[in-house]
From TrEMBL:
InterPro entries: Papain-like_cys_pep_sf, Peptidase_C19, Peptidase_C19_UCH, UBL_USP40, USP, USP_CS. This is Ubiquitin carboxyl-terminal hydrolase 40. Belongs to the peptidase C19 family. It is an enzyme of class 3 (hydrolase). It comes from Diceros bicornis minor. One of its GO terms (biological process) is proteolysis. SUPFAM superfamilies: Cysteine proteinases. Keywords: Hydrolase, Protease, Thiol protease, Ubl conjugation pathway. It comes from the Eukaryota.
Length: 1211
């Protein structure tokens, strides 16, 4: 078996990967974990199934599918590798690559796989294998209310399909299917064959026969007939680890253990209804895996007493029986039972148990063997034979079941040896805990198929932790041979991965001269290549070299060496014989110098990076035979140590001290040389930045003339590029099409343009109306270059090509003028905006003198011409609106109606219409609408404070219509989607710190008193629900200090204190006006909504609430109203309008499709491109007995007999 994850120390068979859909992986893993199926397949030998070696023989009887399944199960159990391929199995299905990669339903595959396997096993001892393991029956009965005649119909099943929508869990769904009756009465009567008339009747269904392995498919995919589209049901759907099916069965006289089933596999679907990914949770029934979490180390011991109490509270059966046993006659009204439960455990049934167990009455009905409901379901009592003894019996049954489970497997009482769960996700396998299964109750990643097995099905002790149990000998031999081959390949791969090449340079074969090491004979004879394992130590390497070099005498020192332009240089001496080569960071292909550590050829050599030899080009004037200096410049290479002083150049060359110039660049121009002052002669070459290939020019200090000027022709001979090529693209004929203009990096573009015009002999008028544009490698013209740029600023390289084009390089202001002229718009009250990524107006182009390149405007960009003059740089033009909410304590009055107020028109840019924007401020039915009234624009500096903005808003002429004591009595919001959006707090904070932007708009709200909100204060609009009405009271402002965290508990406590109510007697919900929906806020809601990190689960700022300033919070007093409904009549109307709007869109789209069908020859274009849906099939050969059917007359009857021999090929 493969050691999949060292992190979890886990050794378990891996998931299957290959050319196959992942749902096949999960089905096979879940089927295999049923244990009985793969062992039943293992019991079928070659004499019944044939051999894969004979599959190509025409007359051979080979059943390929069972054989490939046998082989695959053996690989999963025994093969020592991370993943097993299903390619051979899918080939036996007759699948092509196209079929293998299609999206299909896992339930469909499960049924087809069973059918194909059953067909393949016809005529063998395993012909009824699927039937024995998975087959069950359901009986549907209709009972006539008059004659009591029972009409029944029996159905077979291999898996149960249960509903998910509007059902809390598996037990609730089974109750609806197999306990509740459907009554035929009134207009829906039943025709009784016995009575021969329409009568009242009751229809029910029961499980008649239970299979050893029960497969349950959850109907998570549904169709929305309103939206006309499919969707996935992601609501919470619970399922137990152990389930008692006795209440759902027709016969209940068997022992209780016959009805107990344990969950052993869960197939999980992640994604939507049009595609997704499957993975599977598997219970390790045979204890083949090493289940261990690293975080379990050092885990504190659990208090067993506390654990028992928690388990009792989590089990509603124990709590309810304890309550009933305390009542007289063990009888109590159902409503009082819920109240008693609340007092006993401190939490109501709906909050604690409803999501998992359903409504209280249904739970009592489900446990009819314990509880007895009255005919009107108003009271409940314990059955007469159920008292405290019932509780003990229940516990005794559990203990008996546990003993049965552990009696055949010694050691199972040990917690560490209990069967554990694993998550198999493609080739990734990791351990999980049982509580992790609850995370798959709901969401986009949720349980899709459940696999249960009878708890009485126990594995023999010899099967525990024994993957070879009952595996056929021929498969054992095949797997053993495959594992040996894998070990060989791994050893070869391991050797390849850990071996590397070392280049050994032997000291006796080298000599030291000219500052570096050089081979005495040749490089080939002086260097040996050695392949060595990097996991071995340095001492092992030294010993291996000793064995190779039998002639070596004395000490052996190994050093890292490298080739430099001057030769071979020794850098670091290797020490630490106990360290591995990986630990001392020896790289592949490293050069190792083998020597005595002192000298080479009798010469002590310098080592280390400080004295690295530098190969320099030295230039100076030649000296004649008479000792006079010639005017010829000579160049020759010379090696100097990097830590030598620069002044040693004169000593090494035996020339008088003079002027020293150094060039560290590839250019040989005059400006590339740097003169070294005499006081720097004592600095080292490294300190001066000299490197390999640098040039040194030596000049006589008495010579006033520079050698660089004298040797102009020599400098020009160097491959120096100091020119640009300019092409004539002005559509004016010239003598030459292009010219070369000499330039440096500091040459101004304007000078190059003027020189090009002169040399091309073009008209002088082009000097005022032309520009230079770079030409890329593909010949494409790029953006014009501004005349005032240098070549360095314009990022132009020497030797590049420029085009001389008509017209000047435009600026944003010139671009604005051109657009105004083209559009025929007068005036200067306009500005430009660049469109953003969603094709909307972005930030304005403020710097009118800037070039388009500076503004990052590229060819093909779209600019919008917007009315309104931009404010000066550093200023904002902010539209101000008056926001008038309604408060129960009265509100500010305006002198006149502002609905028709229009802003002044003189040159003011208004991104929003001047008319008032109306919206409903509150979801309540009786609330009046409030409006945003436009007051005017304020031009203000970005350095101004929020209080100064309020003061300027108050000073607007339109503001005189409203009465406010002072600017401090104003609350400021930004405007978004025609509603107050973000609250601006801190009056002394500068506007630029709010990052308002040039498109921001502000609305001011009047206050009854001054407020000073802190950075952690959240302003919410709370509304108390009116008792008995689907409406709310007027909103009240509530300030919530969220400094201790944005938790639901903190908010509930603040709301309870605000309304002077007990926190357990209120319910709160956030209102989403765009959806007309209320979302209840509770800690439980948040924990089941997201399966993210624990810190983020209880944060109201995140999903699904996104709580912020100004949100509406509905409050319900549970003392006077106890229901889950927060909606209002207005919400119903709004949802109905949205539904009608959706239907209208669907109809219009349908009409467009019908209209376009004439154009596209009747073909209908799909709304969304999706892959084709195709049926899934497995091709199976025929194993029926060929021959002829003969009718024989025996006695008084006819008998069908079959004559012929068995034959056939295929799967």
């Amino acid at each position: 078996m493969a050691n999949i994850s060292m992190k979890y120390k886990m050794k378990i068979e891996a998931a299957i990967v290959g050319e196959n859909p992942e749902l096949l992986i999960q089905v096979l893993q879940s089927v295999k974990r049923g244990i009985r199926l793969h062992q039943a397949l293992f019991s079928l030998g070659p004499e019944e199934l044939g051999s894969l070696e004979d599959k190509d023989k025409p007359d051979a009887k080979v059943r390929i599918i069972p054989l490939q399944l046998q082989r695959l199960f053996a690989q999963l159990l025994l093969l020592d590798q991370e993943a097993a391929s299903t390619a051979d199995l899918t080939d036996s299905f007759g699948w092509t690559s196209n079929e293998e990669m299609r999206q299909h339903d896992v339930q469909e595959l499960n049924r087809i796989l069973f059918s194909a396997l059953e067909t393949s096993l016809v005529g063998t001892s395993g012909h009824d294998l699927i039937n024995r393991l998975y087959h069950g029956t359901i009986v549907n009965q209709i009972v006539c209310k008059e004659c009591k005649n029972v009409s029944e119909k029996q159905e077979d099943f291999l898996d149960l399909t249960v509903a998910v929508k509007n059902v809390s869990g598996l037990e609730d769904a089974l109750w609806n299917m197999y306990v509740e009756e459907e009554v035929f009465d009134y207009d829906n009567l039943y025709h009784c064959g016995t009575c021969d008339k329409l009568v009242k009747a009751a229809k029910s269904a029961k499980l008649r026969k239970l299979p050893p392995f029960l497969t349950v498919s959850l109907l998570r995919f549904n169709f929305d007939f309103v939206k006309c589209e499919r969707y996935k049901e992601t609501s919470c759907y619970t399922f137990p680890l152990r389930i008692n099916l006795k209440p759902f069965c027709e016969q209940s006289e068997l022992d209780d253990l016959e009805y107990i089933y344990d969950l052993f596999s869960v197939i999980i679907h992640k994604g939507g209804c049009y595609g997704g990914h499957y993975h599977v949770y598997i219970k390790d029934v045979d204890h083949l895996g090493n289940w261990q979490f690293q975080e379990e180390k050092g885990k504190p011991d659990v208090n067993l007493k506390d654990l028992r109490n928690e388990e009792e509270i989590d089990d509603p059966l124990i709590i309810l029986k304890a309550i009933l046993l305390q009542e007289e006659n063990n009888l109590i009204p159902v409503d009082q039972l819920g109240q008693k439960l609340l007092k006993k455990i401190g939490i109501s049934w709906n909050k604690k148990y409803r999501k998992q167990y359903g409504p209280l009455r249904k739970f009592l009905q489900l446990h009819s063997q314990i509880f007895l409901l009255s005919s009107d379901e108003s009271t409940v009592s314990l059955l007469k034979n159920s008292s405290l003894r019932a509780k003990f019996d229940f516990q005794r049954n559990d203990q008996h079941i546990f003993k049965t489970l552990t009696s055949e497997s010694p050691g199972l009482n040990d917690r560490s040896s209990c069967p554990h769960w694993f998550d198999i996700n493609d080739s990734k396998v990791q351990p999980i805990k049982e509580k992790d299964i609850q995370q798959q109750f709901q969401g986009k990643e949720s349980a899709y198929m459940l696999f249960y097995r009878k708890s009485q099905l126990q594995r023999p002790p010899e099967a525990r932790a024994n993957p070879r149990y009952r595996v056929p000998c021929h498969l054992l031999n095949e797997m053993d041979a495959a594992n040996l081959e894998l070990q060989t390949k791994r050893a070869e791969c391991d050797s390849t991965d850990n071996n590397f090449e070392l280049h050994l340079h032997l000291g006796p074969h080298y000599q030291f001269f000219n500052g570096a090491l050089h081979p005495v004979v040749s490089q080939t004879e002086s260097m040996w290549d050695l392949t060595f394992d990097k996991r071995k130590t340095l001492g092992d390497l030294r010993q291996s070299i000793f064995q190779l070099l039998e002639f070596w005498e004395g000490d052996m020192v190994l050093s890292v060496a490298k080739f430099v332009p001057a030769g071979l240089h020794v850098y670091q001496m290797l020490d630490g014989d106990d360290l591995t080569l990986s630990e001392i960071e020896i790289a592949d292909g490293e050069d190792i110098f083998v020597w005595n550590g002192v000298e080479v050829g009798g010469i002590q050599i310098p080592t280390g990076s400080d004295c690295e030899p530098l190969l320099l080009n030295v230039l100076h004037l030649a000296t004649s035979s008479e000792g006079e200096t010639c005017q010829q410049l000579i160049e020759f290479p010379h090696v100097f140590p990097a830590n030598a002083e620069v002044g040693t150049v004169f000593t090494a060359l035996a020339i008088p001290v003079g002027v020293l110039l150094i060039n560290n660049t590839e250019s040989m121009g005059e400006k590339s040389w740097t003169t070294i002052p005499k006081e720097d002669f004592k600095k080292t070459f490294r300190e001066q930045g000299v490197r390999n290939g640098s040039s040194i020019l030596i000049q006589d200090s008495n010579d006033d003339n520079s050698l660089l000027a004298k040797q102009g022709q020599w400098i020009a001979s160097m491959n120096e590029i100091d020119w640009l090529q300019v092409k004539n693209l002005c559509e004016i004929e010239s003598e030459e099409e292009q010219v070369k203009i000499s330039a440096t990096v500091n040459t101004v573009v304007f000078d190059i343009r003027i020189k090009a015009i002169k040399e091309l002999k073009l008209m002088k008028e082009l000097a005022e109306n032309s520009c230079l544009r770079p030409i890329d490698r593909n010949g494409k013209l790029l953006c014009p270059v501004p005349d005032n740029y240098t070549l360095k600023e314009a990022e132009l390289k020497m030797g590049s090509s420029l085009g001389l084009c008509p017209g000047k390089a435009p600026t944003s202001s010139q671009c604005l003028k051109i657009m105004l002229e083209k559009s025929g718009l007068p005036g200067d009250a306009w500005h430009l905006r660049k469109t953003d990524w969603c094709c909307e107006a972005g930030e304005p182009l403020c710097e009118e003198g800037a070039t388009l390149k500076e503004l990052m405007i590229c060819s093909g960009d779209t600019l919008l011409l917007i009315e309104g003059k931009l404010p000066p740089l550093g200023f904002l033009t902010v539209p101000i609106w008056w926001y008038q909410p309604q408060h129960p304590s009265g509100h500010w009055k305006s002198h006149q109606d502002q609905t028709n107020c229009t802003p002044p028109q003189g040159g003011i840019w208004r991104p929003i219409s001047a008319q008032a924007l109306s919206f409903v401020d509150s979801p309540g039915d009786g609330h009046a609408e409030v409006s945003l009234h436009y007051l005017g624009d304020v031009e203000i500096s970005e350095d101004a404070t929020l209080m100064e903005l309020k003061s300027q808003a108050v000073a607007l002429p339109s503001f005189s219509e409203f009465v406010t004591p002072s600017p401090a009595f104003l609350r400021v919001w930004t405007v978004g989607n025609k509603r107050p959006d973000r609250l601006l707090r801190a009056n002394q904070q500068q506007l630029k710190e709010y990052k308002l932007g040039r498109r921001s708009e502000i609305c001011v709200e009047p206050l009854q008193k001054e407020e000073n909100l802190g950075p952690q204060d959240v302003l919410l609009r709370t509304q108390m629900r009116l008792p008995g009405k689907r409406a709310y009271a007027l909103p009240l402002d509530l300030v919530w200090d969220a400094a201790r965290g944005w938790t639901a508990g903190s908010l509930r406590q603040r709301v309870a204190d605000f309304y002077s109510l007990p926190v357990e007697k209120i319910e709160i919900a956030k209102y989403f006006p765009e959806k007309f929906e209320w979302l209840p806020i509770s800690s439980w809601n948040q924990q089941i909504t997201k399966r993210k990190k624990k810190k983020k689960q209880d944060n109201l700022q995140g999903m699904p609430y996104y709580l912020k300033d100004g949100d509406t919070i509905g409050v319900k007093n549970l003392l006077v109203e106890d229901d889950d409904d927060f909606s209002t009549v207005r919400d119903d109307i709004g949802k109905e309008k949205q539904k009608q709007l959706t239907l209208g869109k669907k109809k219009s789209q349908e009409a467009l499709r019908v209209q376009s069908s004439h154009v596209f020859s009747g073909t209908e274009a799909p709304a969304r491109p999706r892959g084709p849906e195709a049926s899934l099939s497995i091709h199976v050969g025929s194993f029926r007995l060929p021959g002829k059917v003969v009718l024989e007359e025996i006695g008084s009857g006819l008998v069908l007999s079959f004559q012929g021999n068995r034959s056939g090929n295929g799967g």
